[in-house]
Write a structure and sequence with these properties.
Helix content: 40-55%
Distance between the termini: 92 Å
Strand content: 5-15%
Strand order of the largest sheet: 4-5-6-3-2-7
Largest sheet: 6 strands, mixed
Shape: globular
Number of helices: 27
């Protein structure tokens, strides 16, 4: 007999393996002792698969907001009313040194059965009553699909009802090593194009979760195979079969995929210490791991910076990598010797990247960073060829700021993706050494090379040199700042004498 008294006709069945629930669930059992509430979705799937759990989804027949507020108050956390119309509330609590997000939602339909049928995939449509955790409520066969690692739609119209689910299907496939069923693929191909009608904010959030997750390159290729990528990022379609001259071994599209793969490896080396030993077995990645080991903490902080809505910065860097050569198709030319050129492609690519950012409703700061990364992604390679003076080092960070860190990482991925398995040792070593010198300058000489207090300000300069406000003051200050970074001047007196000499050498420009 089904659990009629709990608002559902689903017959509970014992889980076929032990379910090791987080201790927080036991606390919720005590806290919500007399509440009719169910664990649903990802918590069931991940506990079943023995995966780490940091978020809880609860469903209840009534308004979920009071339940979420009760949890937040009892555990001294924060409460947010996410959706008043659907009765959804969120509690964010710190529990055993971890930050947990607990969402509590009213049933989407009249009862739990209707709620589960209305979900995206069967793997997310399994529930367990909070006070009867030994039994699964699984009307759609979700546990079998979890065991078989299948992403199956709860309803054939699931993608049509919410096209963002197409992105979720790809992300679930990547994060959990699952396969899309043929029916799921067909539905995405048929109904996925309606994703253009989705709000930019929802599209952004879903796409950035994919960029922030594992196997970004595989995810982009799967979106492409499902004919969905052109509806998200149209310019990617033009990159295919655009050939390049040696030393490139791939066309523009395949090169971009190789860059994403290399950037994934660099991200893993930086964010996951366990990956460093594995990377050492690969010459190219091993050199990065060795050269940047002392900066790992700095790079980790940089990549894990969060933009609005908790978008991790490394996801933005992957979007930049995806965009970095989008300007090549419209700029391709072939000279008389048959050599292929892409003059100013980085400018075109940067404009396309900024357009993507605007279409995805990114913040102005994110769009500016995205544009700067793509516009200057070739700069470390130019420095590697021309030599690294302290002046060049200063000007790199003066021009690029924190984006220069992103550009260093992208430059290594770009060159790695140019040669693939044919990566030549000497040029690669030279580039990695250039990147190491750049990053050492940023992180180890920050207070003398990047961000320091000028020896003179504009008011002092005008007073001592009898200057009027104008562009010449800014020029002198910029020149003084560079001289200070180069350690040519160390005191305000030296700075003043230097400025007088500069002004003498630039007579006629003082007004």
């Amino acid at each position: 007999m089904g659990l009629v008294e709990r608002g559902t006709m689903i017959t509970p069945t014992p889980f076929d393996r032990p379910m090791y629930w987080p201790e927080l669930v036991e606390t919720l059992q005590s806290l919500l002792e007399n509440t009719d509430v169910y664990l649903v979705g990802g918590i069931i799937r991940d506990v079943y698969l023995r995966r780490p759990v940091h978020d809880l989804d609860l469903a209840t027949p009534g308004d979920g907001r009071p339940v979420a507020r009760r949890i937040a108050n009892a555990l001294q956390g924060d409460y947010y009313a996410l959706d008043a119309g659907r009765g959804v509330g969120r509690a964010i609590v710190n529990w055993q040194d971890k930050r947990w997000t607990i969402d509590v939602a009213q049933f989407r339909r009249d009862d739990l059965l209707g709620d589960l049928k209305d979900r995206d995939f069967t793997a997310n449509a399994v529930a367990a009553h909070l006070h009867d955790l030994d039994k699964a409520l699984d009307p759609l066969g979700g546990l079998e699909d979890i065991r078989n690692r299948l992403v199956r739609l709860c309803d054939p119209a699931s993608i049509a009802n919410d096209p963002v689910r197409a992105l979720r299907a790809v992300r679930l496939s990547l994060s959990h090593g699952m396969r899309l069923t043929p029916q799921t693929k067909q539905a995405i191909r048929h109904d996925g194009p309606t994703i253009t009608a989705v709000s930019p904010e929802r599209l952004r959030d879903a796409f950035f979760r994919l960029l922030a997750g594992p196997k970004v390159m595989a995810g982009i290729m799967l979106l492409d195979a499902l004919d969905l990528l052109p509806f998200l990022l149209p310019e990617t379609l033009d990159m295919k079969a655009v050939t390049q001259s040696p030393p490139h071994i791939f066309d523009v599209w395949r090169h971009t995929m190789a860059v994403l793969a290399a950037l994934e490896a660099i991200r893993e080396i930086t964010l996951d210490v366990r990956q460093r030993d594995e990377a050492a077995a690969n010459f190219g990645l091993g050199m990065i791991a060795f050269a940047l080991a002392h900066l790992r903490g700095n790079l980790q902080t940089h990549l894990e910076y969060q933009w609005p809505s908790e978008r991790p910065h490394h996801a933005l860097l992957f979007l930049a990598a995806l965009a970095h050569d989008t300007g090549k198709p419209p700029t391709r030319s072939v000279d008389e010797a048959g050599q292929v050129h892409f003059y100013r492609h980085e400018e075109y690519s940067a404009d396309i990247a900024a357009r993507w950012g605007a279409n995805l409703a990114l913040s102005n700061d994110e769009i500016e960073r995205l544009h700067k990364i793509v516009r200057h992604h070739m700069r470390p390679q130019h420095l590697e060829r021309s030599g690294m003076s302290r002046r060049a080092l200063y000007r790199y960070w003066r021009d690029l700021g924190a984006a220069g860190v992103d550009i260093c990482l992208l430059a290594m991925a770009d060159v790695h993706g140019k040669y693939g398995p044919r990566l030549p040792q000497e040029p690669w070593l030279a580039l990695v050494q250039t990147i190491q010198r750049l990053l050492d300058g940023y992180y180890q000489e920050h207070e003398t090379l990047v961000q320091f207090t000028p020896l003179l300000d504009g008011n002092q300069l005008m007073r001592h040199l009898d200057l009027q406000p104008g562009p010449i003051v800014g020029r002198i200050l910029a020149a003084l700042r560079e001289a200070q970074a180069l350690q040519e001047i160390r005191t305000s007196a030296e700075a003043l004498n230097w400025a007088k000499s500069w002004l003498e050498n630039h007579k006629g420009q003082a007004h």
